[in-house]
């Protein structure tokens, strides 16, 4: 059983949305609750914070034209280090006072898939969207509580998605050309918890790495859903994962500190930080958002 090591201690309230950008040679992630965007130059470790002018910052994606897309309570925007927040790419289709966007990932056709959710109450008022290269928005699922685990198989035939509060990762048949999903079935069922599925990524062999929120570990599931590898963490609330570094052979993991009591925080001083572990199966290049 492997143990991930701390990379940077940021004490994020809700670290999320981690990804590797080969153009900047950086690991990027967000602290959702403080709308902070983190940038870690790898491997030398220089860390920068960028404060964004939103209430919440749910997820990010690397943009083909440079910079990132950022998913917020106000919709999706372009963003870059040089210019800050740019044009709005997707307007809100929810109440911005009570709802926000959460987990998001890009498919290999350049669509950015992202889910909305109620920001406070665990009620089924969220929606799974995709933002296409021409700016068209498609709606795929409704009645979502907490959208997570968006990922795509290496052959682009499967789409993975979790509703964290329903304790299951689903697998769908996926058509890359049309951007459609169908035939939902369970891929991994978590039972009654407390461990539940958060963010995921898929490696070059089709293994799905998933952060087990409230489980203190990351699990690699083989393409048939079997547990293949378990990575233990010194933090109870891992939130998201990506495979990065120049050779795509490092597993990066974000975590949260806000669910912990004061006593638990004292016992978990690394909670809210980022962890890393070398892995034997490499990742896949992160697709670029074409919006």
In short:
By secondary structure, the protein is an all-beta fold. Helices cover 2% and strands 53% of the residues.
Task: Characterise this structure.
- This protein has 291 residues and is an all-beta fold.
- It is built from one helix and 25 strands.
- The chain has a five-stranded mixed beta sheet with strand order 1-22-21-20-19, with no helix packed on it. Strands 2-25-24-23 form a four-stranded antiparallel beta sheet, with no helix packed on it. Strands 3-4-5-6 form a four-stranded antiparallel beta sheet, with no helix packed on it.
- It is globular and about 45 Å long.
- The N and C termini lie far apart (41 Å).
- The mean pLDDT is 97.
Keywords:
four-stranded antiparallel sheet; 291 residues; single chain; five-stranded mixed sheet; mainly beta
User: How far apart, in Å, are the first and last alpha carbons?
Assistant: 41 Å
Query: What characteristic shape results from the CA principal axes?
Result: globular
Arithmetic mean of pLDDT: 97
Helix content: under 10%
Q: Give the helix/strand class.
A: mainly beta
Count of separate DSSP helical elements = 1
Order of helices and strands: EEEEEEEEEEEEEEEEEEEEEEEEHE
Largest sheet: 5 strands, mixed
Our Rg estimate from Cα atoms comes to 17 Å
């Amino acid at each position: 059983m492997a143990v991930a090591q701390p990379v940077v201690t940021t004490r994020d309230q809700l670290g999320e949305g981690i990804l590797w950008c080969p153009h900047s040679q950086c690991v990027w992630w967000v602290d959702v609750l403080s709308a902070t965007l983190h940038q870690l130059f790898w491997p030398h470790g220089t860390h920068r914070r960028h404060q964004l002018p939103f209430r919440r910052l749910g997820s990010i994606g690397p943009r083909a034209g440079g910079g990132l897309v950022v998913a917020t309570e106000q919709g999706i925007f372009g963003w870059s280090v040089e210019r800050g927040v740019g044009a709005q790419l997707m307007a809100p289709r929810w109440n911005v006072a009570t709802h926000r966007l959460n987990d998001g990932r890009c498919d290999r056709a350049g669509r950015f898939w992202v889910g909305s959710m109620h920001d406070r109450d665990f009620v089924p008022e969220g929606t799974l969207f995709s933002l296409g290269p021409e700016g068209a928005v498609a709606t795929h699922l409704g009645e979502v509580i907490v959208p997570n685990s968006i990922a795509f198989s290496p052959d682009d035939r499967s789409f993975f998605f979790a509703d964290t509060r329903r304790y299951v990762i689903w697998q769908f048949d996926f058509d890359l050309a049309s951007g459609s999903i169908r035939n939902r079935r369970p891929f991994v069922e978590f039972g009654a918890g407390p461990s539940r599925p958060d963010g995921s990524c898929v490696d070059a062999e089709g293994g799905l790495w998933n952060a087990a929120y409230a489980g203190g570990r990351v699990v690699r599931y083989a393409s048939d859903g079997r547990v293949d590898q378990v990575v233990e963490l010194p933090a109870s609330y891992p939130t998201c994962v990506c495979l990065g570094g120049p050779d795509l052979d490092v597993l990066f993991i974000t975590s949260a500190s806000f669910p912990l009591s004061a006593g638990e925080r004292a016992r978990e001083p690394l909670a809210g930080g980022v962890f890393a572990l070398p892995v034997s199966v490499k990742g896949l290049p992160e697709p670029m958002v074409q919006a």
